[in-house]
Amino acid sequence: MAEAAKSPPPFTPPPNEPLYGGYTRFELELEFVTLLSSPLYLNHLASLKLLQSLDFIAYLKYLQYWTQSEYIKYLSYPGPTLKALELLQEERFRTDILSPEVVGLLVREGVESSKGYMSGEKD
């Protein structure tokens, strides 16, 4: 019998951790990187010209810590999230994501990946 997937341990913030709107920085950054798994959200960020901002690009580089195993376990959609973090490091992708065709391609890839996962196929 297959063992059920284990949930990551709950995040316990250190004492005196500052809160932003009632949330820790960890919780806010987890929410943000999870949103990056959506091609539509990436397109939205690009349409706001955030992906051209040097400060925002530096923030995306900082978020690479989510690729470490101690943080991956907290991601709801690790595959798409990590792929987005990787692609966002590339200037060309930050421009190309404005294209509806590129967004559509990423959506289709995600759907196909989900179909394989749901049917038990492995890459």
TrEMBL record:
Domain of life of the native organism: Eukaryota
Main location: nucleus
Pfam families: Med31
Any one GO cellular component localisation term in the record: mediator complex
Keyword terms of this UniProt record: Activator, Nucleus, Transcription, Transcription regulation
GO molecular function: transcription coregulator activity
Cross-referenced InterPro entries: Med31_sf (IPR038089), Mediator_Med31 (IPR008831)
Quaternary data: Component of the Mediator complex.
Biological function: Component of the Mediator complex, a coactivator involved in the regulated transcription of nearly all RNA polymerase II-dependent genes. Mediator functions as a bridge to convey information from gene-specific regulatory proteins to the basal RNA polymerase II transcription machinery. Mediator is recruited to promoters by direct interactions with regulatory proteins and serves as a scaffold for the assembly of a functional preinitiation complex with RNA polymerase II and the general transcription factors.
Family: Belongs to the Mediator complex subunit 31 family.
Protein name: Mediator of RNA polymerase II transcription subunit 31
